[in-house]
C-alpha cells in the first residue's frame, strides 16, 4: 500500500514537473510567433499510461485527452467520466466506427472517405453530432495514412455534406526526424491548406516537434512521451 502511494506521488510529481516545462515552452513558442499561449491547447496522449495518470492530468486541469486505440481507451473513458473529453487520434478500422462514435468526443484522425461514411452512419444511429478533424498526409509518405493535399478540397466537400459530422479542422503527423526544423514545411503546408479551406483547428506537433508546430500555427498539440518520461530522460 505504502509503496503504491509513493509510486503514485512520484509519477504525479514527474507529470507536474514535465508539464510545467512543456507549458513554458508552449508559451515561448507562441510568443515567438506573435501568438498567445491561450491559443494553443495541449492534448495529453495517454496511450502509454494507465487510469491513475489520467486522473492526475484531470486534476491538473487537462480535460481533453487523446488515445489511439479503443482497447486502451475504454477503461479510462469509463473510469474518468465527464468533464474529460476523449480524442481518437489513431487509425480507425471501419468496423470499429460504432464504438468510436459512441466513446469519443472527437475523431482527430479521419483519414479516408470510407471512414467518414461509417462514422456518419454510426453517429446518425446514435443521434449524435460528431466533431472530426481530417488527417492529411502532407509529406506524402507511403506508410502514412491521410488525405493527399490535392484530394482534400473534394473530400472536405463530401464530408461537409454529411449531417452528423462536423469538420473542425485538420490534423497531421510529421515524419520522424532528428531536427524538428526539418518538418517546419510540413506544418506550414497544413496551415496554408486549412486557411484556404476556411478551417480553424490545426492539430499538429508531438513531443519532438511541438514548438515548431506552434510557431507555424498549431492550435492543438498532442503530447505523450514528454509528459510521462522520468526526469533523468529529460532533454534540456
Ligand atoms: C502517441 C501519439 C502522439 C504523442 O506522441 P509523443 O511523441 O509520445 O508525444 C501524438 N499523436 C498521435 C496520433 C499518437 O499516436
List keywords for this structure.
about 240 residues, alpha/beta, six-stranded parallel sheet, two-stranded parallel sheet, about 45% helix, binds pyridoxal-5'-phosphate
Give the SSE map.
Blueprint (H helix, E strand, L loop, with lengths): L1 H31 L8 E4 L6 H9 L4 E4 L2 H11 L4 E4 L8 H7 L2 E5 L2 H13 L4 E6 L16 H9 L4 E7 L12 H14 L3 E3 L6 H6 L4 E4 L1 H4 L8
Parallel strand pairs: 1-8, 2-3, 3-4, 4-5, 5-6, 6-7
The site of pyridoxal-5'-phosphate (PLP) has 14 residues, from strand 8 and helix 9.
Strand order in the largest sheet? 2-3-4-5-6-7
For the sheet with most strands, the description reads:
6 strands, parallel
Number of helices: 9
Look at the helices and sheets and give the structural class.
Answer: alpha/beta
Q: Report helical residue fraction.
A: 40-55%
Bound compounds, each kind once, are: pyridoxal-5'-phosphate
**How would you state the average pLDDT, rounded?**
94
Q: Which percent range describes the beta-strand content?
A: 15-25%
Report the principal-axis shape.
globular
Which runs of at least 5 residues are low in confidence (pLDDT < 50)? none
This entry's quaternary arrangement is single chain
How large is the radius of gyration? Answer: 18 Å
How do the helices and strands follow one another from N- to C-terminus?
HEHEHEHEHEHEHEHEH
DSSP E strands, number: 8
Alpha carbon gap, first and last residue: 35 Å
